[in-house]
Design brief:
alpha/beta; TIM Barrel; 8-stranded parallel barrel
Length: 382
């Protein structure tokens, strides 16, 4: 299978599976426990149908919108994800350049494999930093200050990961960061020579945003579950969130909000946006899908705060359904991670081009010329 054979996100998934050692692929593809929530994140979109209008004069359409104060060419964001150089040697650099080319938001994680400063210097496109609150307050303050100095456009506080979900695929494979060549996976690494050579002979795998504070920043191998369970602050609360918002002083979002009550609290502390997200099903298995919760949250805080629908997005029509149900934009991680793993920047660009074409085609077939015309009356729930 080649990149030119990829015509949807699932095709990129298949190519990524063929090119990655299985522990690395399972880190991207896997989720918590029985992975029920991960599956539901996408299948939830099947429960609603689009109702198109015809003869609407759709020769010229506008797919752009404003998200957290920056203009976006598409109502689609690339969610921040960790450890990207484990999937392709270019990691976050490839994603940043592809996002800038298509005029969309992207984000980097606290556990990014390129530094805040490097990414900021690389792109003038809209960029967000995803903050994990560590027990080490000095590390938290350092990352916030570095983002301020580097000119990041927004900070998203991750609120659903005070401890790690039970990611059983990673437990079985022994996946760590940096990846280790475990005996059970040696054959898989040996039969993926392109990935293995890039990893062994490429730049040293690092988590540079942690430098000077934790050993993991220097390349010490640790499982993600162990890292989250030992390093992150389980005492984080709404006062913590309000304090971080104040310390940051710029556009501020909460990533991982799933209840209407928490959405209301986000408005009360002055957040600019919430990401309805369950971390790709990687935390609490059996929790609701973001799209299932969207209407309830829109009813509670719609018009008072921007609402990003994050999770399960695999098609342009998923973005259109999210907007029609009241979201400001849609966002996803795996939708570009599979493409990154499959072919680096070229893969991410092809994935974005496919999604752009799906959104454009869907709008024309829906009879809308602007995303603002995507309203709830365009949907029917089964």
């Amino acid at each position: 299978m080649r990149l030119s054979d990829c015509h949807n996100i699932d095709d990129f998934r298949k190519l990524a599976k063929a090119r990655l050692p299985w522990p690395v692929f399972d880190y991207i593809d896997g989720a918590a426990d029985d992975e029920l929530t991960k599956a539901r994140n996408t299948s939830a979109f099947d429960e609603v149908d689009l109702v198109p209008d015809v003869l609407a004069g759709v020769g010229k359409i506008d797919m752009s919108c404003t998200i957290m104060g920056r203009r976006s060419a598409l109502p689609l964001m690339l969610s921040p994800t960790a450890l990207q150089r484990a999937f392709h040697r270019d990691g976050e650099r490839a994603v940043a350049l592809a996002a800038e080319k298509f005029g969309v938001w992207f984000g980097i994680s606290s556990l990014a494999t390129h530094s805040i400063e490097e990414i900021a210097a690389l792109t003038s496109g809209p960029k967000l930093f995803q903050l994990y609150v560590h027990k080490d307050r000095g590390l938290n303050a350092s990352m916030i200050e570095r983002c301020q100095q580097a000119g990041f456009d927004a900070l998203a506080l991750t609120v659903d990961t005070i401890v790690s979900g039970k990611r059983e695929r990673c437990l079985r494979s022994g996946f760590t960061t940096p990846p280790r060549f475990t005996p059970s996976a040696l054959w898989s690494y040996a039969t993926r020579p392109r990935w293995t050579l890039d990893y062994v002979f490429g730049p040293k795998f690092r988590l540079p945003n942690l430098d000077g504070y934790v050993q993991e920043g220097t390349g010490k191998a640790v499982s993600i579950q162990e890292y989250f369970n030992t390093m992150l602050d389980t005492g984080m609360d709404w006062d913590t969130a309000a304090r971080i918002r104040q310390d940051w002083g710029g556009t501020f979002a909460l990533k991982g909000v799933m209840s209407a009550a928490d959405a209301r609290r986000a408005v009360e502390i002055g957040a600019d946006a919430i990401w309805i997200s369950n971390h790709g099903g990687r935390q609490l298995d059996g929790s609701r899908a973001p799209f299932d919760q969207l209407r309830e949250i829109v009813e509670a805080v719609g018009g008072e705060i921007e609402i990003v629908l994050d999770g399960g997005v695999r098609r342009g029509t998923h973005a259109l359904k999210s907007l029609a149900a009241g979201a400001t934009s849609a966002s996803g991680g795996r939708l570009y991670l599979y493409a990154l793993a499959a072919a680096g920047q070229e893969g991410v660009e092809r994935a974005l081009q496919i999604l752009k074409e799906e959104i454009e085609r869907g709008m024309r077939l829906m009879g809308v010329t602007s995303i603002h015309q995507l309203t709830p009356d365009r949907l029917r729930w089964r």
